[in-house]
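Collaborator request, handled under Task 6.
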Amino acid sequence: MPVSRRPVSLGAERAKRDTSEKTGSKEKLTAGFPATRMRRNRRTGWSRRLVAENSLSCDDLIWPIFLCDGENVRMPIESMPGVERLSVDLAVAAAKEAVELNIPAMALFPHTDPGLRDETGSQAFNRDNLVCRAMRAIKAEVPELGIICDVALDPYTSHGHDGLLTGETIDNDRTLDALVRQSLVQVEAGADIIAPSDMMDGRVGAIRAALEEAGRKDTQIMSYAAKYASAFYGPFRDATGSAAALKGDKRTYQMDPANSDEALREVELDIAEGADMIMVKPGMPYLDIVARVKRSFAMPTFVYQVSGEYAMLMAAARNGWLDGDKIMFESLIAFKRAGADGILTYFAPRAARLLAQER
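Structure tokens returned to the collaborator:
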């Protein structure tokens, strides 16, 4: 019967020998330093590229834009330096730029005139609302660009909440019907991905069932599965006009920032209900959630680098406290390191331009 022999490691044998013999410099060579010098792989740029564990490309980027009424209108958002609300014609131009920059998808968010907001968010069901007009215009010019549509009522309600109110309480089950209506209107206008961000229980299942019934079986759902009740959303609410409208807060339906295990339960439920992709929001303060979700479910996992994160980095860069480009890339690669497959970020066009220069 052949004898099983353990393979001989010359390196291990040499290290063992050298621990008992003096070297010419009268130093003992241990299994660590100086035999192992971690800096060797970091010494040159080409070597760092070869051993990099994660990388960032344009394929990882989703560009969120804000829409406004009018023609040839740019409305700067004071709390988000460098970001503007765009009229539909300029949104089409931005979509063309996204394609030129190899950004795969764009997410659309409306700024709704206060006069069009009401208790039920009825503008969400208007087939000619701002988002629907923008989608049709973009798809007519650049059909190859993916369009992600947010599903929630807060851009349209007079009270600024994501769902319908019964008294002062968010009515989860009544809201589901409204979210289904909103989703079907968006898909009809050209949405490729429906992204429910409302955090109502059961909304992914309700939307998936409605899409199947409507013959839209190929429409993808990117669920904001772990969306936290965060103070980092402030500039976004300025951009959509929800800040002034919001009455109270959203802690009864968005997640408590103290909780981590709960996020896994939320994600598991949304996957079971038919989500194709899941999202964690916000981003940098919740990298641990991104990592846990990716490891636990191995699903396409996205993260939203939200308005407050963007505003902090931009403010520090504009004050000369941080290097803007370097801190942007460091923040984006952190999402990749945590396990994210893609990133919604207001830095998308800036990052894509710089990535193109590196090629």
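The cover message to the collaborator said: "The chain has one domain: 59-358. The longest strand covers residues 220-227. Please let us know whether this matches your experimental observations."
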